[in-house]
Amino acid sequence: MAPPMALTVVVGPTASGKTALAVSLAERLDGEIVSVDSVQIYRRFDLGSGKPTDAERARAPHHCIDLVDPLDSMDAARFSELADLAIAEISARGRRPIVCGGTFLWVRALLFGLAPAPPADAGVRERHAAVAAQEGREALHRRLATVDPIAARRLAPNDFVRVSRALEVYELSGVTLSAWQSAHGFRAPRYPARLVGIRHSGEALDHRIGDRVAAMLAAGWIDEVRDLIADGYAEARPMRSVGYRQIAEEILGNQSTGDADLATRIYRATRVFARRQRTWLRDQPVRWLSPVEAAALPATVLAELDAPLD
């Protein structure tokens, strides 16, 4: 059996220009793009997830976008199956798979697989949801901290899905999620891959985040969320993502929308999210491009990205 084709994986914090870089690489390297984004995979969550525009999709085929209804379940394991299929189809056409996205748990699952922890249990998750509803998500996070402090330090208290999963693993197996992951090690790659991204200064990235939030709000993001809520998606998982959650809270709280205060809250939450992304990337073997290199993609950079992996 032939080895899997090497993947070019475009990573970086939100607002760093991943989509534009991936599209340019796809054009120059005869590639197709596989999105690794836990919001873009849902239909109708468009503006706030930064889905590629019609023009960008015309320049390069995109996969793993708009695949599931917002109320459907989706996790890293299922995503990996869908991405594997897309990568196989792209490779069969003799084209280059270019992975692009900022959901790094999914990136890691795709490249290295997942630790063999117990499968999800609906009853446990319902019990956790009841605790979060009655006592707050922070209470569930405190429970996790008592049994798996390593996982608790890594996860935000408001990240109900991942906090619940980490606690669920311990309750079902008596072994912490961090121990499962340590034993797995994420050392045996499923695909040979080269990571590439655009490095911005902290100040420049903050400006880009602010511009992105303003543009999304001007494009009708609040109306998009209002329509989603009206159609029964207020409790959909992607509604808990950065930006969508702040807008939904504003709408459901019957507060004024579209003012600077809402934009500021989204901006601040996005900056926190971007910091967490940069923390994950700190120890990854990323080939960082300057903004000038990313815009021009000179022949030397393309040759480096196209070279065989050791």
Which class best fits the helix and strand makeup?
alpha/beta
Low-confidence stretches: none
SSE pattern: EHEHEHEHHHHHHEHHHHEHH
CATH architecture of the largest domain: 3-Layer(aba) Sandwich
CATH domain fold name of the largest domain = Rossmann fold
Tell me the overall shape. globular
Enumerate the strands of the largest sheet in spatial order, edge to edge or round the barrel: 3-2-4-1-5-6
Mean pLDDT: 90
CATH superfamily of the largest domain: P-loop containing nucleotide triphosphate hydrolases
Radius of gyration: 20 Å
The tally of structural domains comes to: 2
The end-to-end span amounts to: 20 Å
Task: Explain the overall architecture.
This protein is α/β, with parallel strands linked by helices and 310 residues long. The protein folds into two domains: 166 residues, 3-Layer(aba) Sandwich (Rossmann fold); 63 residues, Histone, subunit A (Orthogonal Bundle), CATH 1.10.20. It is built from 15 helices and six strands. A six-stranded parallel beta sheet has the order 3-2-4-1-5-6, sandwiched between helices.
